[in-house]
Amino acid sequence: MKRIIVAPSILSADFADLKTELKRIEAAGANWAHVDVMDGHFVPNITIGAPVVKSLRKATPLTLDVHLMITDPQKYWKDFQEAGADIIVFHVEAVKNAKGLLEEIKASGIKAGVSIKPATPVSEIESLLDSLDLVLVMTVEPGFGGQSFMETQVSKIAALRKIIDDRKYNCIIEVDGGINDKTAKVCVAAGADALVSGNYIFSAGDIKKAVESLR
Ligand SMILES: O=C(CO)[C@H](O)[C@H](O)COP(=O)(O)O
């Protein structure tokens, strides 16, 4: 059985005490820390920027999985790479030349991924899959934590799994939005490799148990 990567989204953490929150998820067995960067343009919410990622980098050895929900990823990705991101994921809907940006990010020595919103079909990223380290399927409208999982996106995960396996691409499928012990099972059955979860993990009394329940 494959080992599922669990990436708690710090969007649901206590922003006044992020160091402690990172230690809690490390102790709970999380693999990555998922960092949601929102600019108030691409999505209707504003969260954090590169200076915060720089501080997170000093506070944890966890892989920093940085999800840019911003209008100009080509303008800002470098700030996040220099701040210590291990993976940078940008939205395909936000750029004209996704392939070029992917190559730029990868050339900097870190991993690169693209994310797709619920309304964006797999066909929009099919030609990118061979250059991707990761594809992030949004199972909520990006912008806020604590929303309900959209079942309509499960077929997208399965379609991506088939393409990636058939063509032997080296690309991880990550799923983000409304992930809990029940929706995680559905996503893993459809072919997900990595699960982002915010509200479910950070609101749990026992976060170790919550992380384990996703695997
Ligand atoms: O990208 C996001 C929102 O745009 C969050 O990562 C995502 O929604 C996770 O939070 P939750 O598990 O609470 O749904």
Give a written overview of the molecule.
It is an enzyme of class 5 (isomerase). Substrate binds at residues 9, 67, 143-146, 176-178. Its cofactor is Zn(2+); Co(2+); Mn(2+); Fe(2+). GO terms for molecular function: D-ribulose-phosphate 3-epimerase activity; metal ion binding. Keywords: Carbohydrate metabolism, Cobalt, Isomerase, Manganese, Metal-binding, Zinc. The protein has 215 residues and is α/β, with parallel strands linked by helices. The chain has a single domain, classed as TIM Barrel. It is 35% helix and 20% strand. The chain has helices spanning 18-27, 50-59, 73-83, 98-107, 154-166, 181-190, 199-202, 207-214; strands at 5-8, 32-38, 63-69, 87-91, 111-116, 134-138, 172-176, 194-197. The protein has an eight-stranded parallel beta sheet with strand order 1-8-7-6-5-4-3-2. Helix 2 (50-59) links the parallel strand 2 (32-38) and strand 3. Helix 5 (154-166) packs parallel to helix 6 (181-190). The longest helix has 13 residues, at 154-166. It is globular and about 40 Å long. The chain starts with a strand and ends with a helix. The mean pLDDT is 98. The structure holds ribulose-5-phosphate. Ribulose-5-phosphate binds next to strand 2, strand 8 and helix 7. Ribulose-5-phosphate is lined by residues 9, 11-12, 34, 36, 67, 140, 142-147, 176-179, 196-200.
